[in-house]
């Protein structure tokens, strides 16, 4: 019976539930029908039993009812009592209301009689309350000057400005304007306005140049070394806003700060715009700074607590900066709390807001403009002085007093001693450093890799990095001042101004900012950097381009113009001796205030770079170029879009013009003089007098390269070193190198012609047939590494090689008789040709390496440009003729020298051996010594080999002297035709001659002794056949028909040999041996 489940039955009567469950559900039906139960009992066999069961169920139900009544009895009683109470209270209230109505009616009658007196009392009470309020305000205002001074002392400038503005507005209220006791307070507040202005401006100035407590450099001092932070400016909410910078656009959205009031859309002095995306260092929050902002405008921070997480999952500080801790909460303070900008950006924003609330935006801009140049000059000078003190203190053995009195000459001497080129002492007593020092227009310190270049680059990198940091702050302050100048409110005559400002990017904004603009600040910064560079380069005012003077005059004297792009553009004024501050006409109000166009305390002295740099001069332009390029790219990436198309490479343009108009011409003249000196010196093309005993391929170990060519190689490397430092001008510098190489080549050609002019060997190598045969000669394999020489690469057969040698020998032997005046008899000229050949080969190899290196650098530069195009696109002029072609010309001349030497030695051999044809070999005794002409030839070969050995490599010596054996063997064979008669001793004499020649050639270490022996053994075998009888000779021919040709065998029969009988048909019988 589910309907009885909710009955309140106690646990001790739980059996009642079970009993109830046994009762049929039909008893509990809504419409109970008793007839079935009556019929059931009447028809039942056990009527008494069924009746008894019904009684028991009736008892159970009664008992359940009793339990339920008992359980609800107390509640019923309480409800009855509460109802009785309610009835009683209603009755009493009705009685009290009746009495109250009676009392109110009586009070109405009484008050109506005294209405006028009550009104007078109420008005008096209101007047007294107003008087008390005014007295409280007067008492509070009287304490304001002291409170403001206290806040100023605690550097709570925003709170002080808030209090000053509120107090000034309060004094303008009706009722307080006529209070005479407040005149002193008004005077104090007026003075404090000026004090506040100068205090805020001074603190802004310190932070503008990263000298303040919250500057970016100071806040990151405990972070990742001294890496330059990427700062971002902040966005402003306006209807038609000016184009904002890259770092400004990052902060659109969450970091926008309200410029207007909550509902009236009118400007309120306490509200301010701002926001940024850089993180700072908070004293309370122990915030850690990450130097670089992320691409979407958010940065990473680590905080101890109280911060939130930005949309990209990075922690963002939500703490009130310490300098706003005493400020009254307003829109600006709330914006600063929510902003995720770095501390230095927040602080700069706070200072600009203070100036805006004080109504001093234009005055602040004017003072910042006036102090910009001397401040930058002082910062650069101080940095250089600190670096000089560090350098002097780090040098051992020099005290403080001595280091301050150290002159530039002594300092330069020390740098030269410690940073000289490596002294690579060569075996002949000459150093590379000495060679370069003798011809180079610059000292080792000023060379492309010298210490002066390194020091200048490091110095300029450091200073330009500092300038970039400062310019970042100027971008922030400049954009803020331009925005606030359009919202300036004169606090002395308070009035509301519309907040919807229609901003025109070309509007004349410098008037409202006192002449201060981003273009002006960038101009001054670059001008100071340009003056520093001029001091480093020792440049005179005439060294600057003509554009500089024009731009300076335009900045200083231009008339008002509607073309604001020409005025706000990044015009670049250079300053050498004139310290005039170029203040545009927009800042004419400063002139009216009595300010001079020449800034006070303008520094006319230099920067003191001589104390840091080992040497100064025009050649430091190479180390200046790359830092200026990097500086220009950084500035271009930071500039707002408003200035992106107005030109921002004034400093780079100056450096490039200086390099193009002054440095490159000066370098060309200086190095041309060095080249001329190197190649015109008497010792330039004079072989070393005390060369090493053997050849060494290493220049450091004594390779005897001619002094002139060695000097040219070093000069070319040095000039290409300048090209690597200035990639844009690499084409011009390579052209210089090509000009120097061309002049040197002409001088080498002249020296070569002086040695070979009108000599037979020179004329022979110019013949087309001889040239082709020499190219096919297997000995020319040593030239296969040469370019475009056409050397046969495929290995030819021995028969082809012998045929080439025989053809060349026949051409040379047909020149007999060789006259002595057609030969180079001066050994010094031969040594010069050998040394010139090796030196030309050395220069050619060096040129090839330099050409490949320059091409590789150019390819890398082009690849870098294609991957990451810069704001400034710079292309290097392509050289019309590459260095490889010069290397080829040098190598060709080197090979010509070797060819002349090879032909000369072969002609010398023919000249000596042609005496064989003019004598008879009918000696009467055994030969003990070779012939005089052989002795002369062998001694000449030995002497020339010893003299040339230090100047040419082994394979080149093999080429020079390797042709002697083949021409001598051929001469021996062909001389037999001209010998009239010969006997046994004559044959021995000729064999003795061949042995002597073999010994002389075998003494040359680079020549193949086995090949020499085979060739001359063949000669001796040929002449020994003269000692054989005809029949024995015939048998030898039959067995060795291929050892000699038919004509050579026939020549053996024509020579008269005493005691040998030759039949009349001898030639026919010999001819029968050879196949037809």
Written account of the structure:
The chain has 36 helices and 4 strands. Residues 221-317, 397-429, 489-509, 542-604, 787-794 and 868-880 have low confidence and may be disordered. 59% of the residues lie in helices and 1% in strands. It is mostly helical. α5 (157-171) packs antiparallel against α6 (183-208) and α24 runs parallel beside α29.
Count of helical stretches: 36
Helix percentage: 55-70%
Uncertain parts: 221-317, 397-429, 489-509, 542-604, 787-794, 868-880
- Taking all residues together, what is the mean pLDDT? 74
What distance separates the N and C termini?
144 Å
Give me the secondary-structure category: mainly alpha
Count of individual beta strands:
4
User: Which strand-content bin applies to the residues?
Assistant: under 5%
State the assembly state of the protein chains. single chain
Question: What order do the strands of the largest sheet run in, or round the barrel if closed?
Answer: 1-2
In angstroms, what is the radius of gyration? 55 Å
